[in-house]
Specification:
The complex is a heterodimer of chains A (about 475) and B (about 150). By secondary structure, chain A is of the alpha/beta class. Chain A is about 40% helix and about 10% strand. The chains are: A alpha/beta (about 475), B alpha/beta (about 150).
Amino acid sequence: MPRPLSPARSLLRLLENSATPLFAVDSRRRIVFAARALGDWIGISADRLVGQSCDYHPGGDDPLAQAAAALAPPPEAFLGQIEDGSVSRLASGKLPFERCAARFVKVAGNDAEDSLLPVFVQLQSHVPPDGPASSLAPPRLHAQLLDQRSQLGKRFHISQLLGESDAIARVRRQVRVAAESPARVLIVGKTGSGREHVAKTIHYARPAAQLGSLVPIACPLVDAEEMQAALASCLRRQHEAQPTAPPVALLLDVDRLNASGQQELAGFLALPNIELRTLATSSVALERLAAKGKFRRDLAYTLGTLTIALPPLAKRSVDIPLLAQHFVEEANRGRNEQLSGLQPAAQELLSGLPWPGNIDELAKAVREACNQATGPLVTAANFPAWVHLAKNARAHPPRRHEAIQIDKFLAEIERELMVRALAAASGNKSRAAQLLGVSRPRLLRRLSQLGLIAPPVAEEPVVFEPLPEEP
Amino acid sequence: MSAARLIVCEKVPRWAVALRRALGDRSRQIVETRSLISSLSALAESPASLVVAQITSVNIEPALVWLSTIHRDFPLARVVVALEPDLASAEPLLREAGAVAVYYSTLQAKPMARLARRQLALAPSDERDLWQWIAERMPWPTHASA
């Protein structure tokens, strides 16, 4: 006679067979339980999900890790700050991407390390609103990222291709064409716009059978001798690695290749029986340089059979919130405390900047801010000083070649210093004088002269009337 | 601190000596480190540097990871490898990992120095306008007026 199940085992059996997709995550964000219905919903056996990490980030290259990461509850749920939110199912096979409402019920243990977070996926319910600025709220951006990653597929390194703008959608189409074509590709864009990244995306998106070795060549540094050595090494790698797939020379900043290097490269590419693909990056169109006599015309046409122009970040500022969310989630890898996204004020700060360094500069700013963040959301104050300085500098547009009145100019700077010192001293003028290294009377005099305080009212002289004489 | 220096990473200073001779007046921009890890700290101070890394059979595997770290965290930096001749077969792999050039003997210090001069000349220049220059020197930035 079989032994009757204990109440705990009975409950476990009941939960395993629940019709609601249900799973539980421990304090280290590992899935410790998954109901069969969850496996049915995401198309992966529930048993395989147990033990997977549920961090709030892209999830690596493994499909199982990606599916588990898509289920990750937002960091606020682990802190007990929210009970309602959403989780996502990645698109796979016949299953489309889906974002579903979910309920989080934090169960505290004896200590912080011991808590459990059961998650009930509510298939029939609407996803709760994400907040006032719903299109930019972190949960919505997180879901958008998951959907885009799903669509772009595992072959692409996608960070520079993320976005909803028409400009980047066009680039994605061009990248797909380039990945399927044997043509030489030239990627044109400003520094930091992701040229090298896109070039590698094109290379690694090619079918495995056509994947030769990729050898980067830093064109601003090489002359004819170094170019020859690099190209020879490229061909040698082909023989060792993949004899059937031609090697690929990644010509970085080819617009800055000097004349002798251009000659060597042109000669090499013209050799018969040498099959060498090229992916080239440049900050300007090579035909334009050739028209000015600064680049070999034949080489410009050879390298640019297919040209992809990357838009600067300033021209697609609508993509900044999604890109920033992506970099926050990238920073979550290997972090104990996970971050959910950016506060609205932080998003506003980033969206208002010109980003001359483009995506690389944005990624750097977000990485530094994540290192300073203490709560689940990154605040504007977490961003480094250089980001705020860039914002302040924008308030004073460049005034090149303009005559100044030096006294007025210096007074403006002095005024700003005094405003800041008073704020730092919480309005205490003695303390502000100390911060500025001046005496209090001098500070008061300058504050009055600069109009920062009302001038002191001249006191009326006190007149003592003589006492009446005693009779 | 300059944005670009020449960082030479080797156990025994052979390449550093040869480069100082080859570079002449630029030799004061040379920084020597004794490990790949410590060269990352030097790079953090001068992120547009040229790093000369001595690669041997002992450190070749960590060197491949180190190359990808530099590529990710210091996109303006460039790496040149000083490779043991016995490891010549690893040259294509090191180039694929991101090394811009591979040299085998200190007799090649002159071409290496030429490459270093070009990298130092590419260091980003200060194009900030006057207000940004002033703004960076202003104290109490969190109390800046709007």
